[in-house]
């Protein structure tokens, strides 16, 4: 069942968006996690392996990816003994709409010494509240001021720190995503948790950068806001990625104000509910 849905369907060398790929910002725009997931998937398939682990992914989303056939072209920039770098360009009808860079490193021994780290690590909702899911469904949301985890965006529309726990959608129909692709899919939600105010979301991110100390474990992952800075309609958000074993990476987005299309709780709750019904048929 888990492989029967996805953001895209492969069509030769191209990728055709499925209805679930539509963005909440526009009915003709592909949602950000789908863009990031597709670029991560293609870079990993074409340039991963050989003992290298992806440690950084940077995605620039400089134009809307439209709900029609997409292609991805990749280039290997560097191929050394310990570091490999590759680029990718995502296009609609030969027009570039996004680009990405992946850095892959060869793991080795951990050096000696004790290093400072974030004292309070994020944690997922308890298993008795959110048992392991068999497939994508309505995400869980939490906040410092909003009480317990809830599958309702509106329950946590306040001015405190936000977090989410999700079983993300597959990138391709019929193919379960790798741990790296899962990190990209959930990592894109950094924009949501860092730009979510007590009146909804009024910033749209133009990029995503992931930095991974290890690959995530399991299909369900979370992201918790660390900071939001903004002025004159420009914003920076940073967050921590986590699974049931703890934190495994950091993420950052930059964003631009989109107040004319402010997304509020009611709109997002309707989207998640509709998408969940679509997944369940």
Automatic annotation (TrEMBL):
| Domain Acyl-CoA thioesterase-like N-terminal HotDog, residue spans | 24-103
Instruction: Write down what this protein is called.
Output: Thioesterase family protein
List, alphabetically, the InterPro entries matched: ACOT8-like_C (IPR049450), Acyl-CoA_hotdog (IPR042171), TesB_ACOT8-like_N (IPR049449)
User: Which Pfam families has this protein been placed in?
Assistant: 4HBT_3 (PF13622), 4HBT_3C (PF20789)
Q: Where is the Acyl-CoA thioesterase-like C-terminal domain?
A: 154-250
Q: Which organism is it from?
A: Nocardia aurantia
